[in-house]
Amino acid sequence: LSQLFRPLDLLGMVYRTIRQGVIDMGAMFDLIDTPAEVVDAPGALSLVVRGGHVRFEQVVFGYEPERPILKGLTLDVPAGTTCAVVGPSGAGKSTLARLLYRFYEVESGAITIDGQPIATVTQDSLRGAIGIVPQDTVLFNDTIGYNIGYGREGADQADIARAARGAAIAGFIERQPQGYATRVGERGLKLSGGEKQRVAIARTLLKNPPILILDEATSALDSRTESDILATLQAIERGRTTLVIAHRLSTIVHADQIVVLDGGRVVERGTHGALLAHGGLYAEMWARQAAEVEQADEEEALPA
Ligand code: ATP
Predict the structure, then answer these.
(1) Tell me, what's the ipTM?
(2) Are 258 and 86 in contact (CB under 8 A)?
(3) What number does the ligand 1 atom closest to the CA of 98 have?
(4) Is 20 helix (H, G, I), strand (E, B) or coil?
(5) Which atom of ligand 1 is nearest to the CA of 87?
(6) 223-237 and 157-166 helices cross at what angle (nearest 10)?
(7) What count of Cα atoms within 13 Å lies in the side-chain half-sphere of residue 15?
(8) How far apart are alpha carbons 104 and 272 in whole angstroms?
(9) What is the pLDDT of residue 14?
(10) CA–CA separation, 199 vs 169, rounded Å?
(11) Is the beta carbon of 90 within 6 A of some atom in ligand 1?
């Protein structure tokens, strides 16, 4: 019998998750693998965001007790600044984002926002304060207007159009014969990776959160699309505390602070210039990526 109920449980969980407004994080958080839901502490209060100062303090965490991923990580992101997180694959970059969104509880240590431990506030208030632009945006089989308006309950057409302009996708939408009523998703117009990311940016603009998590796409967009998107992202980062989960270092040169994770700890931190001058792991990663880009450029330039 339990076999029969498992799919129902799963459906229930998916439904609740959608209701919590987290569907656009599907790829990032691997919802189906998400274990028992984290619950609000008794008497939990609403998070009060003043500036959006995010702090990880001596955070210890592992998905399985015998395999710690973060081993006492401290990270301080002053209000309104951008912190990029880099490090080898599997270092725990996305894990930081999942913990900030409180998909999992930390084992010890604390994560605070403006001094309030996130474990003590309601999940609604926490998740309402954080916007996420994921690697891969899930689109509903509905109109593009609906897909953007989903960022904020009660958004009207003017709000949606404003958000679309902020995400630099308004021109594309207006060129479609049915404009904002154009159907997208599985059975509608297929959007490119860059266009989908712009829908996610527009949603986030509507939500207007003080704290932002950008999970940078691993798959390369073409370089023009990438630099266009970067400019849009930098515009929406202004005035918000931003955590960028970065895979390509070229995109985070502007960050106020870059932290390098390795072996469950922060091993280096500083600006791009300072980290290059330091000549450590970041400088090594930078040199490796630069060599890869050069090789790709040479291969592209070869006659077919
Ligand atoms: P990448 O650059 O490859 O995206 P990352 O630094 O973002 O990597 P995480 O996704 O944070 O790495 O994963 C850190 C470690 O935790 C990895 O070893 C990964 O296998 C493990 N891990 C991630 N999610 C889970 C999970 N749901 N259950 C068990 N282990 C997990």
Answers:
(1) 0.97
(2) yes
(3) 11
(4) coil
(5) 6
(6) 120
(7) 6
(8) 31
(9) 52
(10) 7
(11) yes
Residue entry with tokens 């894990």: 95
Q: How far apart are CA 213 and CA 110, in angstroms?
A: 18
Q: Is the CB of 135 under 6 A from ligand 1?
A: no
Q: Which amino acid is at 147?
A: N
Residue 23 DSSP symbol: G
Cβ of 34 closer than 6 Å to ligand 1, yes or no, is no
Specify the 3-state DSSP secondary structure of 176.
coil
| pTM: predicted TM-score of the whole model, two decimal places | 0.83
Half-sphere exposure of 198 (CA within 13 A, CB side): 29
CA 90 to ligand 1 center in whole angstroms: 5
CA–CA distance, 111 with 99 (Å, rounded to integer)? 8
Closest C-alpha among 195, 210, 208, 213 to residue 163: 208
The helix/strand/coil state of 225 is: helix
Residue corresponding to tokens 């926490």: 126
How many angstroms separate the alpha carbon of residue 63 from the centre of ligand 1?
A: 9
Nearest residue CA, atom 1 of ligand 1?
89
| Matching residue, tokens 């710690």 | 68
Structure tokens at 77: 């992101």
Q: Is residue 56 left, alpha or beta, with left meaning phi > 0 and alpha meaning psi from -120 to 50? A: beta
Residue-wise pLDDT tens digits, 6-30: 555 555 555 545 544 444 444 444 4
> What's the CA gap between 149 and 164, in Å, rounded?
10
Looking from the CA of residue 91, the nearest atom of ligand 1 is 6
What is the percent of the chain where pLDDT is above 70? 84
Q: Exposed/middle/buried for 210, CB within 10 Å: 0-12, 13-18, 19+?
A: buried
